[in-house]
Design brief:
Blueprint (H helix, E strand, L loop, with lengths): L4 H7 L3 H21 L5 H23 L7 H25 L1 H4 L16
Length: 116
């Protein structure tokens, strides 16, 4: 008798789901612990980013079922996701220009005499 992948996954029960759920809860709790530590902003950023990357990776592997896919597809998803995130980060720097103006453009925030 042969079993398909869906039957094999169903026979495993809910144990894997609970393990992943508990791990995601533990990582979320770790983020709260890091947030309330009295550390530098740069250290907090690095720690939070590391925990968030682990949490996102676990969520992608579990919820998108990437652990059962071919490695080349997993590599494609990772490269595509990093490319999209880097592309989004490129646009953040331009958002400050709308508030402060372009640097070295000669724009001054001074009051003008409107009576002339």
């Amino acid at each position: 008798m042969t079993t398909t992948a869906a039957e094999a996954q169903k026979s495993g029960g809910i144990a894997k789901d609970l393990i992943v759920y508990v791990c995601l809860l533990a990582l979320a709790g770790l983020q709260f612990v890091i947030a309330y530590q009295n550390i530098d902003v740069s250290q907090m950023f690095v720690r939070m980013l590391a925990v968030a990357c682990v949490e996102a990776g676990l969520a992608e592997l579990f919820f998108m079922h990437l652990w059962s896919e071919k490695r080349i597809f997993l590599l494609f998803v990772v490269i595509f996701t990093v490319s999209v995130l880097l592309g989004m980060q490129y646009g953040w720097t331009d958002s400050f220009r709308m508030v402060t103006g372009a640097p070295f453009s000669g724009r001054r925030d001074v009051k003008r005499d409107v009576t002339k």
